[in-house]
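Known limitations

Files may contain more than one protein. Parsers should not assume a single record per file. Below, a two-record file is shown to illustrate correct handling: read the sequence, read the C-alpha cell line, then continue until end of file.
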Amino acid sequence: MAGKDGTARKKGHTDTTLFKKIFDNSPIGIALTTPDLRFISVNPSWISMTGYTEEELLQQTVRDITHPEHVSGDLEQMRHLASGAIPFYRTEKRYIRKNGSILWGRLMVTPLRDTSGKLMYFLAQVEDITVYRGAEQEIRESNRKLKEAQELAHLGFWNWDITTGAVEWSDEVYRIFGLSPATFSPQIDSIQALSPWPEDHERDKELIRRATQSHTPGSYEQRFLRPDGSVGYYYSTFEGRYDTSGNLIGMIGTVLDITGRKKADEALRESELRFRTLVNQIPVGIAITRKTETGKDLLYLNERFTEMTGYAMEGITSFDTGATHAYPDPEYRRSLTGMFPEIFSEAEKNLTGRPRVTRVTCRDGTTKDIEFRYTSLQSFGFWTMTDISERLRAEEQRETLIRELERKNAELERIMHTLSHDVKGPLITIRSFASLLENDSQSENFDILKRDIQRITSAADTMQALLSDVLEFSRVGRAIRHPSLVSFETIAKEAAGLLEGLLSERCVTVEIDSGLPGVRVDRVRIRELLVSLIENAAKFSGNQPDPRIWIGADTGGPDPVFFVRDNGSGIDPRYLTRIFNLFEKLDPVIPGTGIGLPIAKRIIEMHGGRIWAESEGTGKGTTIRFTLPMRDDIPGTG
C-alpha cells in the first residue's frame, strides 16, 4: 500500500508540474477565478495582454477590466455555467487594458468542480484577436467605400473639412454648376451665393443639422443659377465625419445633376394638370386602373365620377376595394366580376368593349344604373361611366304610358261596343212602346197606357244607369286627390252605413274587424270602393238563409292585405280574373252594368295597390282581396 501511495504522489506531482509548464508557457492568456470572478491566478500571456502586473490583476475582478457593454452578457453566461445549464462559455469580447486601449479577446470559460460537483473555480482562456478585429474593421470600411464608390459612379464628389473650412470639389461638380476651377474657389459663402434663395438654405441647414445630430447620412435637393442665368437643380447626399469624442469634424457628399429630371417632372405636372382639367370637364365618370399581377390598381377617379357615386380616391386603395363598396351584395358582385375576363379579353381584341349596365350602390346608399365601357391602353385600363338612371326611368315611364294608352284604347273600344249594343236595346224599347202608346191612347184604356209608360221609363232608367256608370268609370281614371291618414275600420263603417237600407232589406249582416290598420288614401274613393264591394256581395248572396259579409285585414306581411268576404253564391274559379273586365257580367239576371268591379280595380291601382278575387266555387262564397301600401307617395296624387 505504501508503494502505491508513493506512486500516486509521484504521478500527481508530475501532473502538477506539467500543468504549470503549460500554464506559464501558453501563448494564450489563462486565468483562474473564484465563482464571484475574482482573479486568483493568471499566466504571463494574460499579464502581457492586459498590461497589468500579476499583483494588480489579483486585486481585481473580471468585471473590472471588461468593457461595460459586455458585463451583463458575461454575468448571464456565468450564471448558466454555475447552474450547469451549459458545459462551457465561448464568445468574443472587449477588455480594457491598463493604458485604456481596447483588447479584443476570443474567450472560452470552463467551470471546475470538486468530486461532489461543487463549483470551485472558473478557468478562462483568452486569445488576443485585436489585430484580427482591426483588419476586419478595415475590410468592412474598405467594402463600404467600395460600395459607396460603386453607388456614386458618374457623380460629383465634395469634401468639407469643418476644422479648416476648406471645401474640395471633383471636376464633375464644377461641370454641373457650369464653373471652372481656375475662376471659382468653392467656399461655403461662395457656394451659397450660387443659390440665391434664402428659404432653400434654411431648409438645407435644418436637414444637415438633423442628420449630423443623429450621426446618419442625409440628402437634399437644391436650386442653383448657372453663369448663363438658367436655373439648374442638383441632388446631394452627405455624411458626417466625427472624432473619437463624437464631434463633427467634416462632411463628404455627392452632387447629382437632376435638372433634366426636374424639367421633365414639371412638364409632366403641366401635362397632368391639362389632362385632369380636360377629364374633369367631360360629362361622364372616368376611372383609370393599372394592370398588375394581382389585379388592377386604381390610379384616378375624375370629379364627375365622385359627383355621380359619392366615391373619391380617398379610402379606395384598389379596384377590388371599390367593387366591394359599389356592389355590396356578394352574389351580385361575384356575377359582375365573373364577367371581367370577358370584358378584358374583348377590349384587348377591339381596344374598347361594348357597353354594359350595372346597378351601383352609391356612397349615400342610393342606387343608380350605370352604363360603362372598358378600354385597354397597354398596361392601363380606361373606364367611362354614364348615369342612365333617368333615361331608364323615362323609358320605363314611356313603356308604362304606352301600356296605359293601349289599355285605355281597349277600354274605349269596349265602352263604344257596349254602348252601341246596350243602348240600342232601350232605344228600340222606347221607340216601340212610344208607337204603342200613340195607338193605345186612342183606346182610352188607362191600364195599357200606364204599362206602356212604365216600359218607356224602365228603358230610360237602364240607359241612365249605363251612362252614369260609364261616366263614373271615366272619373275614377283621373288622379287620386287629397290623400290622408285614416283608419280603415272607420271607412268600412261609413260604407256599411250608406247601405243600411239595402242590407236590412236583404237581411245581410256585415261584420267589421276591430283594430284595422290606418291607411293613407283618398278617403272618398276608398269609401266608394267598399260601397261597391259590399253592394256587390249583397246582390250575390244567393239563397243563403243567413247572408253575411266580413271586412278585415291580414297583417302578417310587410303590407296589410284587406278583404271583403261573403258566404253568397260564389264564383267558378275559371272566371275569377274575368270579373274585373269592363262590362263583364257572369249572371245577366242580376241587375247591374258590369262596371262596379272594374271601377274598384282602378281605384286600388290608382293607390298603388292590387286587387284579386278568391272563391272555391259556386255556392261557396267569394273573397275580394286588395292591398293599400303603407306609404305617403301615392301614384298620381296632386
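...continuing to the second record:
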Amino acid sequence: MRVLFVCHRLPFPPSRGGKIRPFNIIRHLTENGHAVTVASIARSDQEAEEGRGLQDFCAEVLCDVIPAPLAT
C-alpha cells in the first residue's frame, strides 16, 4: 500500500518525543512493506538537511523550507 504521511515537522533525527513517535510509525510501515512518502516542512536549511536522513526509512521525503516568523 502507498502511504502519504503528512507531519508538521520532519521526524528526523528521532531525538525528542514529538519526533520519535512519527518516526517509529514511518519505520514500522516501511518494514511491513508499505511505500511511505513523508511530506513536511522545515524551519531552516539545517533542519531540512538533518531530515534527509529520513530517506533511509521511507520511499520518498518531500520537504519545503519555511522560515520561522520574525519576532517583533
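Parsers that stop after the first record will miss the second one. For reference, the second record is described as follows. The first strand starts at residue 2 and ends at 6.
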